[in-house]
Amino acid sequence: SKGRKASDNMFSVLGSPSPAKPGMSGMSAAKSSAAGKSKSSSMSSSKLSSKPHYEFGGPFGAISTMVSLPLLTVYLILASRVGKLLPTFAEFGMAWTEMIGYDWMERVWRSAIVLALWLLLTLFLHLYLPSKTAQGSPIRHASNKILPYTINGHLQFWVTLLIIGVLEFVKVETGAGKGSCESLDGDEEEPSIFDPFTSFVSDYLGVFTTPPSESSCTGTATTSVPLVLSETSMLSYLPTIYLPLAITTTAFCALLSTYLLLSSYTPGAILALGGNTPSTPYNYFIGRELNPRITILGREVDLKEWFELKPGLIGWCVINVAFSRCYYAQHGHISLELAALTLSQGLYVWDALYNEVAILTTMDITTDGFGFMLCFGDLGWVPYVYTLQANYMLYNDTGVGAAWTVMCVFIGMGGYWIFRRANSEKDKFRREGPDSDPNFKYIDTKRGTKLMVSGWWGKARKINYTGDWILGMSWCMLTGSSSVVPYFYGMYFFVLLVHRAWRDDDICRG
């Protein structure tokens, strides 16, 4: 029901929480739970600690996952660039050197700047674009408290693309205020550690300037500031820091997860079910606090909901566009299969943000804590692993023709249609209740929830996963059959969805 968020993190599972009670408002829920906030938190903490339930192999599995997945991400990025598996350290080392270069320190520094500016942009738009407020599901172990959420993802999607387009194709032509092109005192400036930052901002982040014209070098001030098409491509630069950006993002996820763990010990914090165990590494991975929030200039931000949809998902779309822009710069056109991939995945991201409110009934929001699991899944996995096909197409010939591409598009649209229709039924069932539609049929679970068994959900128990996987496989098929690397997504996604189905069944059994 939230677009790619059925798979946006590789760990969590769509649960089956009961729909919100129609007569219960967010304000009344907040009032009823405010007095017992600390009590409910401590009660849930005691309950969880008495008999911890570990997933993903417990503490050892959590540590292994946190180490292996970032390494796997790096490996897949390199393998998708060279177009084949890298079975030896020698081949891995050659691919590493070719992609990250010998100036890797400067690239890492610049990628850190890109990441920081990207997060600031998405946060600013989240805070200040027009929005509506939606109520989340009642938190059962916190006196059925209902939290409000800011919903403006659909608008942010289009505004972000507009900003990227302006920065990409428009620049400001300026000249020196007076004097020559050299510094005013005639001496060379001392180098600074901030030189990579200033040069990056001036070259790639929209403060695009042309070389000074003759008039600006003869002491005449330039008074006009015309807008012209930019010859400097910000988007074409992104693929050159693709790998350093993934590494920098992983480091940021580790730092953010540390903050999330420490802040979860704030009095009154609502802890996640399963996130308050005796194992600190496991809590760090799975997420201890359910809905960590911060306040910026009087505006509250739910960190988990923001990271779930905004930086990672829109970032996935922007990176795809960057690969297409770079392909065009190299070949003078965009291949049909790359265009189909970019548009199809762009549609998928748009769908998630258009249906942003549907995420509030999923297990990611209602049940899972916010730790390294979701943080890395949303920000360190989605934008880099889900763009493997585009990365592969930029450097390798797919060998597919127009007929194959059209067939893949039709297969993908069929999967998307199943995915969207099934998720729409599920979201209506959850949000409005089983009595909202006379055609809804359901069974009761031992957990106390209701499972829909009508409509698409009467055809298969995880029919939305089926449509999702068909769409994902169509993306892999666009890369042809020369390499297995771009098919990692389809294989991983199949295993993920089978695990999700198994986990959902286990939860419904109570």
Describe the structure.
- This protein has helices spanning 26-34, 37-50, 58-82, 89-100, 104-128, 153-169, 195-204, 234-237, 242-263, 280-286, 303-331, 336-354, 363-366, 372-385, 388-395, 402-432, 463-477, 488-508; strands at residues 132-135, 148-151, 170-172, 227-229, 293-296, 299-302, 442-444, 450-452.
- The chain is mainly alpha-helical.
- The strands form four sheets. The protein has a two-stranded antiparallel sheet with strand order 1-2. A two-stranded antiparallel ribbon has the order 3-4. A two-stranded antiparallel sheet has the order 5-6.
- Strand 5 and strand 6 form a beta hairpin.
- The protein is globular.
- Mean pLDDT is 80; it is low at 1-49, 173-194 and 204-230.
Low-confidence stretches: 1-49, 173-194, 204-230
Whole-number radius of gyration? 25 Å
Give a short account of the largest sheet.
Answer: 2 strands, antiparallel
Gross morphology: globular
**Strand tally:** 8
- The number of helical elements comes to 18
Estimated structural class: mainly alpha
Order of strands, widest sheet: 1-2
